[in-house]
Fold this protein.
Amino acid sequence: MTMITSLATAASPVGRRIATPAAQATATATAAVAVAVATPSTLAPALASTPEATPSFRSFSTERPPRAPSISTRITDLFGCEHPIVLPGMSWISTPELVAAVSNAGGVGILATGPLSACETRASIRRVRSLLRDPDLPFGIGATLLMPGAHENAGVALEEEVPVVNVSLGKAGWIRDGLDAYGGKLLATVTNRVHAAAAVESGADALMATGHEAAAHGGDVTSLVLVPALAGAFPETPLVAAGGFCDGRGLNAALVLGADAVAMGTRMAVTEESPLAGATKEAIVTAGEAETIYGDNFDGIPARVLATDASAKAMGSRPLPPVVAYRAFCAARGMGIPLWKVLPGLLTQWNKMYAVAQFGAATEAIVAATVGGDVAGKGVQFAGQCQGLIHDVPGVEDLVRRVVEESLAVQRAQAERHRRWPGGTHHGGDYYPFE
């Protein structure tokens, strides 16, 4: 199924026009709806005491337009990026154009491969490379290993020597082996300590901890608790915090909690380069932080979506077993999977097939909102609680610069408060945690 959307620029209630690309990339109706699961480290010191974990500031002198100073962390060192900011792989949003925009701005863009075939994944990877200002800039691909086609797409990424492979919901030992052949990095998305331990055991270079606030498939624990919990439990493993982060204040908070970077999904989805439909961008810009719904009836895995009549209905009840079986067969047929391969799964792995069937059923609603902008009708859009902090639609480079500059300004203001605090501070009036 190919859906092409061309939306006229619309005036937003916040005084800024919301623009979308003239054409939206292909969206295939598959059972796999890969999202940036932080979807996707226990109590660490506010900032680790080791030199490797202590953020510092550096300025980059390049031939490109002037940029804000960057914050150096273990993630920027590991991935070779300027800023500790990651674009997660959101289906139908994290396209080559948005991925390249984030990497060109100094972050790390993760390409969503859930809706893509192996051939489309290869073409998209090469498209990203063609858009990069520097061929050595880091980027990655996301693979939700539970979903059909994910292993093939991850294999393509290894063949193309993609710098970062972000995995979730599956064992990635074989991917680790493939990455070692060319020095690639494995980023594992987790939502709890058990999954984090398994990821570290399998050789993950870094973890992405997705808190309850996140769009799509966040965990049950908020970022405020999950991030320091995993930072303390796995102090040697760099950590990306996801869920609730959209500005410089959030970046500071993540660093103090023990993270080395933030992933910004909802925030990056509402940028000029994002292919998210204009009407959906506007719906997010005008929504409050409480206007989301979290539940597991939509696509079979606990997820957070923008609150609308359609999403409330979708989250309302689970389908009956016959409906699940029918959806599983339809999803398999759409992906060219023989039905005889589906039947044993229905009989012996009901929970997994249920999840796949739910993913397949959710695809149409997600595409309707993400690509078609139908948030007032049947569309359902993944969105995080930080939508209440999003009030504009900036360009990616401007956004990244703004986040970093705000981060620095907030840190300096906080340091000044400590210096002026009556009676001094615990550090003799010179407390500046990021120096």
Q: What stands out?
A: Residues 396-420 form the longest helix (25 residues). The longest strand covers residues 139-144. DSSP finds 15 helices and 14 strands in the chain. Confidence is low (pLDDT under 50) at residues 1-63, 424-433.
